[in-house]
Design brief:
87% of the residues lie in helices and 0% in strands. The chain has 208 residues and is mostly helical. Helix 1 packs across helix 8, helix 4 packs antiparallel against helix 9 and helix 7 runs antiparallel to helix 8. The longest helix has 40 residues.
Length: 208
């Protein structure tokens, strides 16, 4: 994988995970936690999310083969899904949906370990992120070296996510709603362009 491909993969996954958008949800889910307890929750959530995403990165190709779905077809479908996520980010629908999802997960199935549900799944390792890692693993060619690079990209994106969650309180105070909205919209535009590229690659492969 070229450096440009690795950077594109990191940006794709980072934008989909959206740690800047997760940070206020993380704070709202841990209002009575101490700073130490929040660090533990953040670390556990990142480890669980990493385990889920790595599993799909390694086993995603096998899953597609078992279900009879070609990689080009999945690229088109996955690109459309990622484009919808970017649409939600640009028009400020995604954070509302994620907040509602988190609240329902806690209310409908209360967990003592909120690191697993809803922080890790579905906020970090949700359908968009899972789709992205399968697409990235497929783009890499499926070799073990390339898969290792995809795993490194997952680790890097989640490491940055962890770093942001560890300083979520000052970041939330510093950014505020206005700056956070602007950043989310800009990331949404970037994700839209990446999603179109996935669709274009899939259509090109189907047509060849």
């Amino acid at each position: 994988m070229s450096p440009e491909t690795l950077i594109s993969a990191f940006v794709t996954l980072f934008v989909i995970i959206d740690p800047i958008g997760i940070a206020p949800l993380f704070l709202s889910l841990t209002p009575s936690h101490t700073a130490v307890q929040r660090r533990v929750v953040a670390l556990r959530a990142v480890v669980i999310a990493a385990s889920v995403l790595v599993a799909f990165a390694i086993g995603g190709q096998w899953l597609l083969e078992v279900t009879g779905i070609s990689l080009p077809a999945f690229r088109v479908a996955g690109g459309i899904l990622l484009f919808w996520i970017s649409f939600e980010m640009v028009f400020e629908h995604r954070n509302k949906r994620k907040s509602t999802t988190a609240e329902r997960a806690v209310e409908d199935e209360p967990h003592e370990d909120i690191a697993a549900v809803p922080l890790a799944v579905p906020l970090m390792a949700g359908p968009g992120a899972i789709t992205a890692v399968i697409l990235l693993a497929g783009r890499s060619g499926g070799g073990w070296v390339e898969l290792a690079l995809v795993v490194m990209v997952i680790a890097a994106a989640l490491f940055v996510t962890l770093a942001i969650l560890l300083v979520a309180v000052p970041i939330d105070r510093l950014l505020g709603n206005t700056v956070r909205t602007v950043v989310t919209r800009l990331l949404g535009v970037i994700l839209a362009a990446l999603a179109v590229q996935f669709v274009a690659d899939g259509v090109r492969a189907l047509a060849s």
